[in-house]
Design goal:
With 336 residues, the chain is of the alpha+beta class. The chain contains 9 helices and 7 strands; from the N terminus they run H-H-H-H-H-E-H-E-E-H-E-E-H-H-E-E. The chain has 3 domains: 2-103, no CATH class; 116-181, Helix Hairpins (Orthogonal Bundle), CATH 1.10.287; 189-334, Histidine kinase-like ATPase, C-terminal domain (Heat Shock Protein 90, 2-Layer Sandwich). The strands form 2 sheets. The chain has a 5-stranded mixed β-sheet with strand order 2-4-5-7-6. A two-stranded antiparallel ribbon has the order 1-3. The longest helix has 65 residues, at 78-142.
Length: 336
């Protein structure tokens, strides 16, 4: 109600200025009509829109129609004029409110679609590691004492790797749901790009000691406003995607550089490349269950999380194929 009163008072003051200095009475009706639209946009309630429409009709009649400072609906043509103005204001308010409701319904439908896609992706992605864990553990229990120590160690290592992957996927899933629901707030503080990249790469090297990961950063240290923990998670997800999905054991290259208005981070592999259009859908959160399975498990959830974090920073993320082979995932963070 407060916003409605303030907007209508503002329209009245502007109308007084025009009426006093420019004597453009025809514009007064347009100003009040604009005020009705603003009320409908700011206050998501049909009742207040109708109130604003009534105030606009009464205001024009009382303040800006002869005799001034008095209500007069008896002059020739006035009742029809004001009736048309009232109906127009109410229709305008109804259309704006209807647009808001439709937009809200579309947003809710998109959220439900994302939830459904996440559930379908998870149902596919969990099947392979859980089956492996179940089968390996069953073999150890049933054939205990008859399996060689090397085979036992291999089965235990398989169980450990799949359990670790499940933990990371659940962490990503929880993070992306928090980011997209607005629960997790981004707290920006100046961070050195070199330290952030080094932190992410060191964590990946602990999990994959056999993989070669090179780093390229500018000699002059630069600090960028960011939530360092979240950006480290983004870089880790991109590196792990390259490890799991590139189909190559060639070195993975991580770089960071300062542009004019942003900091650019890139993760490049030397594998088979990516379907750029599909990557754009995954980054946008449209996780498709058609490509799930052991070869691509978790990619959609990981990229959706990366996208949510980068967007929360006011940046952007994209993917493309390098001219000499391999995929490049890049993201920018604004310097301000």
């Amino acid at each position: 109600m407060v916003y409605t009163i303030l907007i209508m008072m503002g329209a009245t003051l502007i109308s007084f200025v025009l009426h006093k200095f420019f004597i453009m009475d025809n514009n007064v009706s347009m100003i009040y009509a604009l005020a009705v639209v603003l009320v409908a946009c700011v206050v998501p309630n049909y009742f207040y829109g109708v109130i604003a429409s009534l105030i606009s009709v009464i205001g024009v009649n009382y303040f800006f129609t002869t005799p001034f400072w008095a209500l007069n609906f008896t002059m020739t043509g006035y009742p029809i004029t004001f009736l048309i103005m009232l109906v127009t204001s109410i229709i305008t308010n109804t259309l704006v409110i209807g647009y808001r409701e439709r937009h809200k319904a579309v947003m809710e439908a998109d959220k439900e679609k994302l939830r459904g896609n996440l559930l379908r992706a998870i149902s596919h992605d969990l099947r392979t590691p859980l089956t492996t864990i179940s089968g390996s553990s069953a073999a150890l229990l049933e054939d205990h004492g008859r399996i060689s120590s090397e085979d036992s160690k291999a089965l235990l290592a398989d169980i450990h790797d799949n359990a670790q992957w499940l933990i990371r996927m659940v962490e990503n899933l929880l993070s992306v749901t928090r980011m997209q629901s607005g629960v997790s707030a981004v707290k920006k503080v100046p961070e050195f790009t070199e330290e952030v990249v080094a932190n992410a790469v060191s964590q990946v090297r602990k999990r994959f000691p056999g993989r070669v990961i090179s780093i390229s950063v500018e000699d002059d240290p630069q600090d960028v406003p960011m939530d360092g923990t979240l950006i480290v998670q983004v870089i880790i997800n991109l590196i792990e995607n390259a490890i799991f999905h590139s189909g190559s054991t060639e070195p993975i290259h991580v770089s960071a550089s300062i542009q004019e208005t942003s900091a650019l981070f890139s993760v490049r592999d030397h594998g088979c490349g990516v379907d750029v259009q599909r990557m754009e859908r995954l980054i946008a959160g449209h996780i498709d269950s058609e490509h799930t399975g052991d070869s691509t498990r978790g990619m959609g959830i990981g990229l959706s999380l990366c996208s949510a974090i980068i967007k929360a920073h006011g940046g952007r993320i994209w993917a493309h194929n390098a001219e000499d082979g391999g995929a490049v995932f890049s993201f920018e963070l604004p310097l301000e």
